[in-house]
Amino acid sequence: MSTVETVRGPVDSADLGSTLMHEHVFVLGEEMRQNYPDYPNSWDEERRVEDAIQKLSELPSRGIRTIVDPTVIGLGRYIPRLQRINAEVDLNIIVATGIYTYNEIPFQFHYMGPGLLFDAPEPMVELFVKDIREGIADTGVKAAFLKCAIEEQGLTPGVERVMRAVGAAQAETKVPITVHTNPHTGSGLVAQRVLKEEGADLTKVVIGHSGDTTDLDYLCKIADAGSYLGMDRFGLDVLLPFEQRVDTVAEMVRRGYAEKMVLAHDASCFIDWFDEHAKAAAVPNWIFTHISDDVLPALRERGVSTEQMTTMLVDNPRRYFEAT
């Protein structure tokens, strides 16, 4: 077994238990929140914290012991708020380091780096490694995995630079990686290629949002190259209906890929990308309890065994975080 860093400190990987592998406590644009606090939703710190505590407190009663939160720079990572929430919830929350962008990198990196105006080693690698080895800011909380993204825009220069920095940081620290991808553009395969070129271990990579497609050939290629498939958007039925998501997981299990899939919702207690009332009406099942209450019974009806569900919820997350 290995030690895994969480918001509340290190835990043994054997104690992670049933794990939702891609959930956000908050997704926030801090500059927008500070300058336009009522758009598109009002922000009341105390109310939002109490709401998060209530929503996360529903998970232990469903047997969920851990959530993996890939909220990084670009999504509003703020560890002190997470620490405050986690102090009231009996749940392991694992946090990440990295940068989330579909296009450009933050301006703080535009002019400093290899071959740039101020020529220097890649500063992102140094920052990511520091988050992993020393902790995030002065919180004492260490990141346990890395996060990057590639969307419909493809491998833009900014996306590639972040991805290569993430791959290099993984090669140095050996912590795992989660990648936001768009399976309809085949970007999971692109991410695997780039990360491998930087020395990353593809068996320690989750290709996120793979559950948004029913393309079984694509999913098998990702898994056969060694990575985990993030079947991690249950509840986002506007992107792919519930029945198709469940059918895809069941068929991949039937084909022998239970050991290469992890499950989650990509949900959040609060996200400021949408009006919250419109969001609730459009995707009512995009909540943390949907897998426990609806998905697992549906998988069981399709012949997925309790042992196979345990593989996806317990064994695969544990192996993902365990040192090799």
From TrEMBL:
InterPro entries reported in the protein's UniProt record: AryldialkylPase_Zn-BS (IPR017947), Metal_Hydrolase (IPR032466), Phosphotriesterase (IPR001559)
Keyword Metal-binding: yes
Residues given in the record as Zn(2+) 2 binding sites: 147, 180, 209
Cofactor needs: a divalent metal cation
GO molecular function, one term: hydrolase activity, acting on ester bonds
Keywords: Hydrolase, Metal-binding
Signal peptide: none
Entry's cofactor comment: Binds 2 divalent metal cations per subunit.
Family indicated by similarity: Belongs to the metallo-dependent hydrolases superfamily. Phosphotriesterase family.
Protein name: Phosphotriesterase-related protein
Species per Swiss-Prot/TrEMBL record: Williamsia limnetica
Phylogenetic classification of the source organism: Bacteria, Bacillati, Actinomycetota, Actinomycetes, Mycobacteriales
